């Protein structure tokens, strides 16, 4: 698999802007005296979570709030809490940006508190009860919440403890998480590798696995080749299994070598061993299976057997994907 390149966190226009300044009034190539000066382009907006290592290429926030779609927005309410924390300080503590940049974001109307856009710099909020979003990204303000990504190797069972003594998730957790009650979001069978989310956020874990939120999951499948034409359409139309018809959302041939093909499929079903059963049903048993992505969270080039902490931006996108 080709590692996903990380996007550059710094703007790439510095060279162009220097060149533009060198050609301005007074420089070679300047227009006639009195000619109108070119208008300055607006300064780019400061990016939230710009210093984070992970999650810089997640794209626009995709909100998925099924139970809220039919509910009209309530009338504007006073979100100020005189005993709370200043909003810009709270944002800075959550890793959005420096306090000064957070003040600019508030003034630009990019911050919401409890669903309302706020522009007052003196606003105070209660971090225990307020829902704060920046550019649509929900901030997780509870300091005790844990969000991890585990790249599960083959042969590891998706449990925190195994009575048979097989290698399990807890064997890879560092000591600082030993006393935490972590949920693994969904399961990967013992032979399947790849992305497994771990968290102590029970509501998030519950929503990510609930079928009504239709959280997409991306898998890389190795099977025998060459593959007959029509298999892709068959999987996208739907295959009758013992527990009903299931289909993939997308199907893409990634690579082929003599006797084997590599296919990327996306589906939102969370049924047990669903990818293996689908490929068995169309006559192409899975030889190797890796989960690459759950919702907006990607495995990228994370090494197998390692665990990393999700960035704040990743957490915000994950919460938005299930309407939190």
From TrEMBL:
Pfam families: PseudoU_synth_2, S4
Ranges of residues in domain RNA-binding S4: 85-146
Classification via InterPro entries: PsdUridine_s_RsuA/RluB/E/F_cat (IPR042092), PsdUridine_synth_cat_dom_sf (IPR020103), PsdUridine_synth_RsuA/RluA (IPR006145), PsdUridine_synth_RsuA/RluB/E/F (IPR000748), PsdUridine_synth_RsuA/RluB_CS (IPR018496), RsuA_PseudoU_synthase (IPR050343), S4_RNA-bd (IPR002942), S4_RNA-bd_sf (IPR036986)
Entry keywords, A to Z: Isomerase, RNA-binding
Compositionally biased residues, Low complexity: 33-47
Enzyme class, UniProt record, top EC level: isomerase
SMART domains (UniProt xref): S4
GO biological process: enzyme-directed rRNA pseudouridine synthesis
Catalytic activity of the protein: a uridine in RNA = a pseudouridine in RNA
Known EC number: 5.4.99.-
Location of the region described as Disordered in the Swiss-Prot/TrEMBL record: 1-82
GO molecular function, one term: rRNA pseudouridine synthase activity
Record PANTHER family: PSEUDOURIDINE SYNTHASE FAMILY PROTEIN-RELATED, RNA-BINDING S4 DOMAIN-CONTAINING PROTEIN
Family stated for the protein in its record: Belongs to the pseudouridine synthase RsuA family.
UniProt-recorded name of the protein: Pseudouridine synthase
Organism this protein belongs to: Psychromicrobium lacuslunae
């Amino acid at each position: 698999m080709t590692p996903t390149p990380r996007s550059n966190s710094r703007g790439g226009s510095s060279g162009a802007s220097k060149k533009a300044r060198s050609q301005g009034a007074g420089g070679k190539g300047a227009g006639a005296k009195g000619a109108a000066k070119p208008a300055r382009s607006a300064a780019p907006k400061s990016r939230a979570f710009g210093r984070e290592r992970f999650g810089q290429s997640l794209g626009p926030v995709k909100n998925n709030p099924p139970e809220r779609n039919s509910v009209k927005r309530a009338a504007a309410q006073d979100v100020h809490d005189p005993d709370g924390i200043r909003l810009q300080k709270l944002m800075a503590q959550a890793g959005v940006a420096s306090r000064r940049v957070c003040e600019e974001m508030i003034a630009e109307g990019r911050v919401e508190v409890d669903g309302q856009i706020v522009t007052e710099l003196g606003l105070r909020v209660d971090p225990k009860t307020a829902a704060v979003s920046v550019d649509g990204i929900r901030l997780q303000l509870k300091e005790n919440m844990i969000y991890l990504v585990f790249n599960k190797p083959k042969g590891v069972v998706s449990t925190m403890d195994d009575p048979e003594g097989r290698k399990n998730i807890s064997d890879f957790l560092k000591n600082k998480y030993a006393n935490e009650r972590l949920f693994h979001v969904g399961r990967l069978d013992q032979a399947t590798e790849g992305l497994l989310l771990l968290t102590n956020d029970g509501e998030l874990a519950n929503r990510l696995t609930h079928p009504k939120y239709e959280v997409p999951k991306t898998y890389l499948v190795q099977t025998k080749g060459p593959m007959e034409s029509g298999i892709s359409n068959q999987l996208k139309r739907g295959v009758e299994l013992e527990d009903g018809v299931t289909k993939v959302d997308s199907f893409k041939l990634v690579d082929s070598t003599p006797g084997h093909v590599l296919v990327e499929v996306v589906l939102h079903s969370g049924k047990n061993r669903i990818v293996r059963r689908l490929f068995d049903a169309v006559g192409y048993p899975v030889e190797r299976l890796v989960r690459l992505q759950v919702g907006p969270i990607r495995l990228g080039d994370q090494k197998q057997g390692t665990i990393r902490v999700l960035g704040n931006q990743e957490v915000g996108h994950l919460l938005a994907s299930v309407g939190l």
